[in-house]
Amino acid sequence: MAAMSLTLPVLPETPTAHAEGTPQPLPGILDVPNDTLRAWLAERRQPPMRISQIRKQILANRATSFEEMSDLPKDLRPQLAAAFSIFSTRVERHMFAMSDDTHKLVLRLADDKMIECVLIQDDGRATACISTQVGCGMGCVFCASGLNGVVRNLTVGEMVEQLVRLRNLTDPKSTNPDRAPRLTHIVVMGMGEPLANLDRLLEALAIAGDKNGLCVGQRHVTISTVGLPAKIRQLADVGKQYHLAVSLHAASDALRTQIVPTNDKTGIPAILEAADYFYETTGRQVTYEYVVLGGLNDGPTHAKELARLLSGRKAHVNLIPWNDVEGLPYRRPIDGNLQGLIDTLHRSGVSVKVRKRKGSEIDAACGQLRRKVEQETMGGTP
Ligand code: SAH
User: Fold this and answer.
1) Is 310 left (phi over 0), alpha (psi -120 to 50) or beta?
2) What spatial distance separates the first Cα and last Cα of the chain, rounded to whole Å?
3) 286-307 pLDDT, tens digit each
4) Which residue owns the Cα nearest ligand 1 atom 3?
5) Superfamily of domain 90-378
6) Cα–Cα distance between 118 and 138 in angstroms, integer?
7) C-beta atoms surrounding 71 within 10 Å
8) CB 159 within 8 A of CB 98
9) Which of 106, 177, 192, 204 has the smallest set of CB atoms within 10 Å of its CB?
């Protein structure tokens, strides 16, 4: 049966100044450094406190134009609108899965690159899944995001914008116990390798956690990594309560290197040691993600190896049946094999869950919709 989904119309929203007929995108205010903004305000005899007012308006009050920022002087608002835009990104495509209220946005960045982000709504949670890079350099063989490598890291503002845009899709007046009126959780599981852009990610998450920002508590933030040991240790040492998810996908180095090519340089033992350090330092249990690829890593031997590797650890396993990516030669596991993995892990005392599939009718697998939109709008492979 065809699942119901809608492509919602995208209305123009970002004002652009026109120089000799060429649209010049205005700088997105979330990425303008404080010093620059302070100087810009000083030239107009405005105090630096305007910066926090503006940011609070966008982050906490859902303002989408300077005009509606009623706590700013009336004559300052058009001046701001002429110099900056609220968002540096544009919504290129907005998909909505009616079956489970999942939204997916393809955003076009100021340099015309595209990224994706997703809002998942269930059980009273509203979870934003955000990207940290354009493309991905890790090259996991089953993943759509890395098919063409990494292009660049996202800026702090580009990451915050994804959160703000997704939060703006939640209903602040919701009384439905299943639909949160605000953003409650963040998973950094979109395109890119978060720990390859860690410093900026931490800045973006600090804004997300601020009481004048999006108010998402640290314990409600999950960062998923391919497993970069030095960066995992760095994250452990920042003194935050973020949750760490490590994409394991195989329990032997030979198979993991086949599925996750960067494993060649790191190897499973160094990743597990870093993850153990993360647990010891933060007290936060580590989740191991395991994309289940039919016939490749889902047999009884794989299950036993995985159980052996994790049974002594305080670990949780998330099994993710592979989401189809057009053109890739993998398949989802048959039910018996998935159950085999679950049972073997249970028997070894390892906590395990199968990740629910969300928004599958809108290409929710990482990087898929962006590829499709790029191919449509550019008429070829990106
Ligand atoms: N670079 C990070 C974030 C990737 S996305 C990482 O490697 O963890 C989050 C998770 O989704 C990862 O475990 C990733 O391997 C997995 N994933 C990517 N494409 C997938 C697909 N087509 N089907 C199922 N899981 C996928």
Assistant:
1) alpha
2) 31
3) 999 999 999 999 999 999 999 9
4) 189
5) Aldolase class I (3.20.20.70)
6) 21
7) 10
8) no
9) 177
Q: What is the mean pLDDT of residues 316-345?
A: 96
Sorted by sequence, the CB contacts under 8 Å of residue 221 that are 6+ apart come out as 185, 186, 187, 188, 205, 208, 209, 242, 243
Same CATH fold assignment for domains 34-83 and 90-378: no
In ligand 1, which atom is closest to the CA atom of 187? Answer: 9
Pairing of strands 22-25, 90-97: unpaired
Rounded Cα–Cα distance for residues 297 and 337 (Å): 10
Q: Is 140 among the catalytic positions?
A: no
The verdict on domain 34-83 having CATH code 1.10.150 is yes
H or E stretch including 317?
Answer: strand 315-321
Q: Can you tell me the distance from the alpha carbon of 136 to that of 195, in angstroms, rounded to the nearest whole number?
A: 11
Domain limits, the chain: 34-83, 90-378
The string of pLDDT tens digits covering residues 23-57 is 678 999 999 999 999 999 999 999 999 999 999 99
Instruction: State the average pLDDT over residues 82-91.
Output: 97
226 vs 8: which has the higher pLDDT: 226
- Tell which one of 243, 287, 320, 355 to mutate to probe ligand 1, the residue whose CB is within 8 A of the most ligand atoms: 320
Q: How far is the CA of 217 from the centre of ligand 1 (A)?
A: 23
Give residue 22's pLDDT band: very low, low, confident or very high (50, 70, 90): low
Find how far residue 280's CA is from the centre of its chain: 26
Give CA–CA dist 115/107, Å, rounded: 5
